[in-house]
Amino acid sequence: MSRRENAWLTAAVVGWIALNGAVLLLAPGDAPFDWPAQHEPPSGPGQVIAAQATLVELVLLAAIGYALTRGRPAPLIAERAPTLPSARRETGLVLAYGVLAQLGGLLIGRGLGWNPIGFHLAGTLVGATDPVGPAEALGWATYNVVVYALVPLLWFRRRYTAHQMCLRSADRRGDTILILAVLVVESLAQWVVLGHAFAGLAPGQLAVGVPLTFLLYLAGTVLPTVIFVQSILVPRYARLTGSTTATVVLGGLTYAALHVFEGWGRFGSPREATLTILFVLLIYTLPGAFKTWLTVRTGNAWVHAWAYHALAPHTMHDTGLIVRIFRL
Questions:
Q1: Considering only CA atoms, which of 270, 266, 261 is closest in space to residue 120?
Q2: Structurally, how many domains does the chain consist of?
Q3: For burial by CB atoms within 10 Å, which of 82, 152, 192, 231 has the most?
């Protein structure tokens, strides 16, 4: 491993330890968040333990992914990005656009009497006490797919090919095997932890709720992640840093940052705002980093979508939420 990779890896480990320490320090007991779908109230120690369990699982999935791809040529996604000056300019503009999109989702959501329009529908994974209606669910999915997927895709496809944007597989058979392997392991893990989400749902509810959940989350969070993060930003991170580790870390942090305005977030006081940001980083940085690793490893931004996003966990866990929202 090069000196640059070692430096980034050290920074990532130190940052992860500091993040966990800050959560334990500021939330030694219950945290001020409403997570009705969880068995226990959110707490600093509980989330730190859950984060380490996620880390262990993702290391296992990465080991499986490495074993299945070790014979493949490196995709060299940094070479798919433009020259350094252009990559630097485009990255800055895309990140600024992302900030405006997040603020726009906050303002539009509040203006319509909804939760903020973030990367997750209010109630996703953790539940929601405040009722979410069908209009909010549809509005959330529409806003995100247009703002984070359609508009950026149309803009960048004018100048870059599908290959340069990591939207075309160079090894369909290899990608398919990798997707199935990760999906099976992740689905089993999610079923152990979240299988209760299907409890009590009738066959008719599942027949309508499963495809509806898949489509809503495909539009609301999967396609935005594929295009905005994996297709556009990840190759530019690789070009700018020249480091695989740095690219994976920055991809994870970007993915987490897009979840700051979760429905459960609280910003009524400095402590609440700080805890919201810390919990978002603790929950979403590792999954975002693994999604990025899959893209870097295969050169295909679609792999993470089918292996570790659209079906597990969202369709598996959030079908119950969608069934309730649409009163199926």
A1: 261
A2: 1
A3: 231
